[in-house]
Amino acid sequence: MDPTLTITDCKVVDLRFPTSEEAHGSDAMHSDPDYSAAYVVLTTNQSDLTGFGLTFTLGRGTDLCVGAIEQLAEKIVGKQLSTLVESFSETVHQLANDSQLRWLGPEKGVVHLATAALLNAVWDLWARAEGKPLWKLVCDLTPEELLRCINFSYLSNALTKEQALEILQANEATKAVREAELLETGFPAYTTSAGWLGYSDDLIRRLCREALADGWEHFKLKVGANLEDDRRRAAIIREVIGPDRKLMVDANQRWEVAEAIEWVKSLAEFNLWWVEEPTSPDDAVGHAEIARAIAPIGVATGEQCQNRVMFKQLLQLNAISFCQIDSCRIGSVNEILGVLLMAKRFGVPVCPHAGGVGLCEYVNHLVMIDYIAVGASLENRVAEFVDHLHEHFVYPVEVKRGHYMPPQAPGYSAEIHTASLDDYRYPDGVEWQKRLSK
Ligand SMILES: C[C@H](O)[C@@H](O)CC(=O)C(=O)O
Ligand SMILES: [Mg+2]
After folding, report:
1. ipTM strictly over 0.95?
2. Domain boundaries in the chain?
3. Superfamily in which the 164-416 domain is placed by CATH
4. What is its EC number (predicted)?
5. What is the pLDDT along the chain (438 residues), one digit of tens a residue?
6. Thinking of the domain 7-132+419-436, which architecture would CATH place it in?
7. H or E element: which one contains 330?
């Protein structure tokens, strides 16, 4: 990398898509989700090198994230990329520990979403500068180089640096075999696109049939608002997909602990693989209680797990059978790597969350990293796929017969077409002006 490559400016765009108009993305807690992003563009002193990153939000929340990113950007603007990434854990520390902004977290909520957006853009810039897709950049680092990127703070009672190094070193010799396998067959995925809460029974039936024809083997249904509706909708999906394909349900935090146990038992006859976000994402002990009561149905969570410390507790308490990292909620690849390593140590498969805009583009890289360099297994692993808004990305995900194919373009795949920014920037984009002027 050119050591003089310097970040000269950070622009942030409030980008919102009116997905709620057709109930795309709807669940028991988010009835009108407008999939949105606080979108970051890092310009540099080289006109052909720009870094793009985002954090996923919903509608009005985007504005708050934009403000937080603008506040944090001063930590990286004016800095040389080589300095930022050579001591990446120091860069992360600087972002997470601004002595005034950390009061709003620390490392949770809006400020942490902002950290994710900025670091995602820095990783994108690094991968572009090296001319590699992000997953390849990360997998080509030596275990020692990778270790320098990871945010290990507060993890030492579950994962030490020495244990992490041991995991990474053990995978070194066989990385090339797994990479070749992914290039050939891709990483298994599941679809949520047929099961949003606001979809009618007929639409669910039709979308499930179409997904089956496209080769999908795993399906997720939104539940939690009304038990009789859930039973009817689960019966429809089970009938269409047959007895053996995997079916998961997602309650998006709707229930009390006892209610979750009772509700899931009432759906158990539909042969569920996991129940996702049964209760508050902060209730690690509650998740453990639910997990014990509903086994062998697994508990999955993570999309609103605020940081690696919460993941640590969920793993230490045997509260989850599936670890759902989110590419934009926690502090980018630096924090995600620590969670992947903890999940490996605790023997819990990582099945990333991707219901949002840009999240599929991101998890595509993350599952490649996990399989090649960390988890090194495909057992019980599936990454989420939702079929919305990919047309806005310059390098959209490629999915074949229910598998994510490895991205080939340099970077972390979050660059958005200029025309899409002009149409969906809030509130002055063409599509919003049409709606707001009605
Ligand atoms: C509001 C989002 O669409 C949410 O429902 C996504 C989600 O829970 C998932 O994809 O899982
Ligand atoms: Mg979910």
Report:
1. yes
2. 7-132+419-436, 164-416
3. Enolase-like C-terminal domain (3.20.20.120)
4. 4.2.1.68
5. 899 999 999 999 999 999 999 999 999 999 999 999 999 999 999 999 999 999 999 999 999 999 999 999 999 999 999 999 999 999 999 999 999 999 999 999 999 999 999 999 999 999 999 999 999 999 999 999 999 999 999 999 999 999 999 999 999 999 999 999 999 999 999 999 999 999 999 999 999 999 999 999 999 999 999 999 999 999 999 999 999 999 999 999 999 999 999 999 999 999 999 999 999 999 999 999 999 999 999 999 999 999 999 999 999 999 999 999 999 999 999 999 999 999 999 999 999 999 999 999 999 999 999 999 999 999 999 999 999 999 999 999 999 999 999 999 999 999 999 999 999 999 999 999 999 998
6. 2-Layer Sandwich (3.30)
7. none
CB atoms closer than 10 angstroms to residue 406: 19
Task: Answer yes or no: is the C-beta of 329 below 6 A from any ligand 1 atom.
Answer: no
Please tell me whether residue 220 adopts helix, strand or coil conformation: strand
CA distance 49 to 45: 8
User: Residues 6 or more apart from 160 whose CB is under 8 A from it?
Assistant: none
* Separation of first and last alpha carbons in the chain: 50
CB atoms within 10 A of CB 411: 28
Q: Are 37 and 113 in contact (CB under 8 A)?
A: no
Contact call for residues 333 and 32 (beta carbons, < 8 A): no
State which residues have CB under 5 angstroms from ligand 2, the bound ion: 250, 276
Q: Is 382 helix (H, G, I), strand (E, B) or coil?
A: coil
From the CA of 192, which ligand is nearest? Answer: 1
Positive or negative: CA dihedral 152, 158, 161, 165: negative
This prediction's pTM: 0.98
Q: Which of 19, 31, 62, 192 to mutate to test the pocket of ligand 1 (most atoms within 8 A of CB)?
A: 192
